[in-house]
Amino acid sequence: MSRINVLPQSVFNRIAAGEVVDRPYSVVKELVENSIDAGATDIEIRIEQGGKQLIEVSDNGSGIEKEDLPKAFMPHATSKISKTEDLDCIMTLGFRGEALASIGSVSHAVISSSARAADGSFKDGYLIRCDGGKISGVEPAAIASGTDIQVRDLFYNTPARFKFMRPDKKEETDITSFVTRFILGNPSISFRLYSDGKLTLQSYGGGLEEAVSQVYGTEALSKCFSIDAHKDGIRVWGFIGNQNYFKSNKSYQSVFLNGRYIINQTIAQAVSNAYASYVMKRQFPFYVLNVEIPSDLVDVNVHPSKEDVRFLNPNAVFGVVYKTVSAVLDGTAPAADFEITAGVVGQVKSTYGKNAPLHSNQGLSKDSQTPRLPTPDTQVRLDNLPSGYSSLQTGGIFVTGPKTSPAPVKEPGNEPLKEPSMAGAAAARPAASRPVPEGTVPEGTAPEKESENVSAPAPAAKKEKPVQEVLDYRDFEYKGNLFSTYLIFEYADTVYFIDQHAAHERLIYNALMERLARREVLSQPLLFGYVFSTNAEEARFLSSNLGLISEIGFEISEFGPNSFKVDAVPLDLQDIEIKDFIDEILSMTGELKAIKLADLLKDRIAMTACKHAIKGGWELSESEIKELFRLLGGDWGLKCPHGRPICVRLTKTDIEKMFKRIV
What we know:
Layout (H helix, E strand, L loop, with lengths): L8 H12 L3 H14 L4 E7 L5 E6 L39 H7 L2 E7 L10 E7 L2 E2 L3 E3 L4 E7 L6 H4 L5 H18 L4 E6 L2 E5 L5 H9 L1 H4 L2 E8 L2 E8 L4 E2 L5 E5 L2 E3 L2 H10 L9 E2 L1 E6 L5 E2 L10 E2 L2 H17 L7 E5 L46 E6 L2 E6 L74 E6 L3 E6 L2 E6 H18 L5 E11 L2 H9 L1 H5 L4 E4 L4 E8 L7 H9 L10 H16 L9 H11 L14 E5 H7 L5
Parallel strand pairs: 1-8, 13-16
Antiparallel strand pairs: 1-2, 2-7, 3-4, 3-7, 4-5, 4-6, 8-9, 10-11, 10-19, 11-16, 12-15, 13-14, 17-18, 20-21, 22-23, 23-24, 24-28, 25-27, 26-27
């Protein structure tokens, strides 16, 4: 039987590091939380190679006394709590005493600190080192105030953990995302983040409005309500997007509980329910919410990384958050309960009278229109069609199709279509020179006698799957149209009704999709480039896919930190809504699946095809009907891009049953 071993400190510190310190961003998180708990008002973070080579956090907090420095890297050593009862009322971000010991066990770490004296001045500075868990003695250090912690070569002695770290840019993005949370959750503290010597993020400690502006831009504030509500001992305050301001993913949602950033399902569901009647599919509300609740009514010691909490009364928290947000959005909150500011930027904060109703759309600014190219009128003419098409001009209208004929069949030349006849159904015509696939007989069509041009169909054979019916369009006889929309053709004892719009729409759609697959696309420059902002995670995702997006005709480039510019769009999709397209791409942020170009543009290509196709109710000339019918190539199984059939057929038998000629 195996013996029970008491693990040495060096081993259990590394085990703890696996839970507390899994990647560079978690080191930054633990060190910044310590700075905040120390009362710092100015925090500077420096990283190199995504934090793998260096993470340094400096602050102007209260510092660490010389005699306490040797304890800093010891496990379960903390200044936040001292007895069991303290766990029931935690007011600090850190409290377990695991972070520094875990960090020191998997890196080369140095703590330099100058402690604050009772009179407010700072004492002499000292430092201590920890190399892979081995702690040095205390040495003098040249530091004027506060604390500076350097962490180098993270996971240098744990290669199994090191090889699972992500690329530098990804690690940098995750660190940036966490620092933005610190900025939003601690708006009275100034932050600076440097990556490889470059300042990438900064705030000035001027309050939440300034913090949101620094992280998301002033435009975001103009589309938000500022809220501050007190109910049942719970305070909910911050900013929520208005009824028209949504994002394509959840990375613009932040919740802070007593200053701690959390991901909590109770609060998230409450906000989601409040927005339910306003939000559309694949859209997510924007919010930065602070929830303050007595510390004895919440347990923050339920998650290894302290990202979630447990409420003593979750229903009460849900109710307060839901009622606060929904009341603001629905416009029913009296001033006695809530203080609301709409359109906060550049406007005077307004408080409503005691019995005055709140109009939730007061002060809202309309979303700026997405730049669009001038588009020609909707007539189906050559200059308003996707490039790469041949056309037949008849009567001033262009009916278009792919340059390549859909099937290698004999051109019918300029012979006119037969005029509609009222004398009844024409006699059965010979089968096509391009025969029906073997084993397939058109429904309601009897096998015909052999002729010198065609042999009779072979006996039906057992097939694994049905074969699509394809008939030779040259053996069809035009019989007229219904409602200037449905073209009527007769073949043998079957009549075919073709939806002219659906048929033309499908032809255009197929050609556009084929060109996309071949990457044969041209770009149309925009008169004014479309500039948009992202957060750090979206910027990394977009940057890694710029080449792919460019392949489909978009000219898009970086335009400053977390900002991009679109200078050209695909010529075939020149009237595309750029904002909607970008939002759909950004909605994939954080997903593991790769972008598929065809899936991404399928709906937009379908809309383009629909817009440029001939419409129902349009009178077409016989030559136009002939060209459209020829381009279909007898493929009646097609559907329009939206799923509607292009053709419906009735046999003579079907019609005779309608008139009770046969039973």
